[in-house]
Amino acid sequence: MAEIRVKVCGIRTDADLAAVVAAKAAYIGLNFFPKSPRFVTLEEARLLTHAAPEGLCKIGLVVDADDATLDAIVEAMPLDMLQLHGKESPDRVAEVKARYGLPVMKAVGVADEGDLAAVFDYSLVADQILVDAKAPKDAVLPGGNGLAFDWRLVAQRRWLKPWMLAGGLTPANVAEAIRLTNARQIDVASGVESAPGQKDAAKIAAFTKAAHMEKGGVPILR
Ligand SMILES: O=C(O)c1ccccc1N[C@@H]1O[C@H](COP(=O)(O)O)[C@@H](O)[C@H]1O
Asked: Is residue 207 assigned to a domain?
């Protein structure tokens, strides 16, 4: 069975990048949401994208970004995918895809069964779906809050497009999350940090090792 693909979101420094590469993650997320402790400037992100090895998928995360903001991001650096993590409509997802010619991953917040219809709706237009915990109403961030949702809601689901599981994942719970949901792709931000925005190389290594052990049964040799 194919190996689990891990995305580590909120990469800010060369040390973060080195830790992710050493841990053999498949994706990095560069966070362009100004209110996030994981925010990177265009210049910081540009340097990281150029330092990233070939084959590592570089995702730009935005929240309800307008065209001018997206134009600046896409022109400044080579990204492989855009992650829309706000209230973007299906029409806006299609518009962003057409405007930039990049694959788009749409985040959908899930708290109960009723939220799953949106996963189907967005799977008609997006290239991937990020199934995340729904943020609390008063939250400053629409994601990256370290909150999990009831994984049984998405257990063994199949959708039209590839999907990633996110929300409150940690080195301690990622194996159980994969076993329960059969997710093939996993996303983490705060669960591999020592403080908000501060990635921890040991936690990144422990997280990817736990994820890669699942299903494939054999960890990647370093
Ligand atoms: O991480 C952030 O700060 C963030 C800000 C705004 C939108 C999304 C954000 N993060 C995304 O949310 C998931 C889950 O985060 P966590 O693991 O629960 O902390 C994260 O992987 C990002 O894709």
From this structure: yes
Straight-line distance from the first to the last Cα atom of the chain, in angstroms, rounded to the nearest whole number? 20
Domain count, the chain: 1
For residue 219, the one-letter residue type is: P
Between CA 100 and CA 127 the distance in angstroms is 13
Q: Tell me, yes or no, whether 158 lies in a domain.
A: yes
The model carries a pTM of 0.94
Structural domain including 110 reads 5-213
Pocket test for ligand 1, best of 145, 194, 208 (most atoms within 8 A of CB): 145
What does the alpha-carbon distance between residue 88 and residue 83 come to, in Å, rounded to a whole number? Answer: 11
The residues pairing with 106 across neighbouring beta strands, listed in sequence order, are 84, 129
What is the distance between the alpha carbons of residues 34 and 56, in angstroms, rounded to a whole number?
24
SS3 151: helix
Q: Is the CB of 25 under 6 A from ligand 1?
A: no
Average confidence (pLDDT) over 71-82: 98
Q: Does 222 fall in a domain?
A: no
- Give the ligand 1 atom nearest the CA of 36: 3
**What is the ipTM metric for this complex?**
0.98
